[in-house]
Amino acid sequence: MSEDTAAIMPEPPAAQNPEEIVWIDVAQAHWQMAHGRLQFRAIPESEWREVGIFRLFPLSDPECWLAVVDKDNTEIGIIRDLRHCPHDALSLIRQELSRRYLVPLILRIVSCRDQFDISTFDVETDRGRLSFHLRRRSENIQRPLPHRLTLLDIEGNRYDIVDTNNLDAESRRLLEERL
User: Is 133 part of a structural domain of the chain?
Assistant: First the structure.
């Protein structure tokens, strides 16, 4: 077993298959914010690792089933539920989730430039003006409802257009050229 066995345990414990889920015990793990990044270590003797947290079921179960990944986007393990998380750690994890799942609403598309398979969007949102890059438009512009669009940039950030009918004519034209 690794040095991190106090907080990370494969389930079942005897499993040796690397394809099996590794569960993180949030009550025993250690969390800190350093240089604006969330860090994790399973036991006090282990090294701090910069991590990100992703919701596996972001809409239906936002505080359960959370993937913890290292800075190389390699999964460390899964948090089943935040209910047993100590308050300080819960605050840090929620802060990371809030940062990651901040979803600006696009109000207007100012410009859009295409180069190779990357589109650069300059938009006005409910949080101010932003620029982002989108790759493989067919995969990263999703239509969850008839007039609603979700755009996923190359860094994994989401941007929503609640109703394409509410966009101005130029914004709709720029968007339709890319659909």
Answer: yes
